[in-house]
Amino acid sequence: MAALANIFWLGTKELRSFLRDYVLLGLVIYSFSLAIIAQSQSSSQEVHNASVAIADEDHSDLTRRIAQAFLSPYFQKPQLIDVRDIVSAMNAGRYTFVIDIPPNFTRDLLRGRQPRMQLDVDATAMVQAGLGASYAGQIINTEITDYLSHTEASSVSPIDLIVRIAFNPNVETAWFSSIMGIINSITMLAIVLAGAAVVREREHGTMDHLLVMPLTPLEIAMSKIWANSLVILIATGLSLYLTVRGLLHIPIAGSIPLFLSGVAIYLFFATAIGIFLGTVARSMPQLGLLYLLVYVPLAMLSGSNTPLESMPPWLATLLQVSPTVHFVSSAQAILYRGAGFSMVWPKFAIVAMIGGVFLGLALLRFRRVAASA
Asked: Of the candidates 179, 154, 67, which has an alpha carbon nearest to the alpha carbon of residue 117?
């Protein structure tokens, strides 16, 4: 009981120190609010509100149907322009897509002459141009096929392909990137806050004061772990409720308390990495450099950006020893697919076991450094 009391009161000291460190406090607030909003809205990988113009020289029922098929939120309402204005409009950047429909297009199509339609694309907006050109091609082909299916020129296809998109029906990047941003922030801040807590004790000379008190290195380390973990847990919960649900209006399929339980288990691993780096670094700049060497591989190879299936088989197999991989997998299952505890408890167990090993190694290193201080 005395050890638990020491850990509790030392943890409250860590919380007071954190609240007085306005740089770290600002970093936590920014990472779970403005950074999530910026990441979700600035890295969009879908077409949104693209400008379209149509130079209709055919003036048929089919061409009017094609114009009406370009709908929001992917495209703006198509504007009718003259063929002579296509080049000047594209040069002025007024439209991203311009569709040029030649005269007698529908008549030649019905007679089986395979007429050509021109799609001009402004590729300065590279992502919108590439995806939008593909969308425009699909829209035009769909309308032409549907039009011909009601005539004698073409028979109805015997196969009707219906695509059903689960969990993210409109394939919006923000639904994915916002939550993955929170998961990456958890790893980043767990390492930074725990490591900074150790380095700050050294730089302020208070580590020697702690060591001459009737405290063990385990009590000192565990107090830093629970205090910083509590900060990240609170920030994560507020970010999901206020930023993701409130400001971004992104639905969360699963249980947030279940996800936070997984976060609490994962934080034993992430904060242990921070404690270990804090015992190696002699100053905050050194901690920053060591942090980059550890965090970047953890984040890039966790499955939050690229699925493990897209990686080389040997690398995907090797990454199974990383708790971050299993944490990201369980987080995606809970928040995206609404998985319950019965589905994710094996992932929780793996994270707890591997994280416990890393925590033991970090505490052993911290004890050695404290003994030699």
From this structure: 67
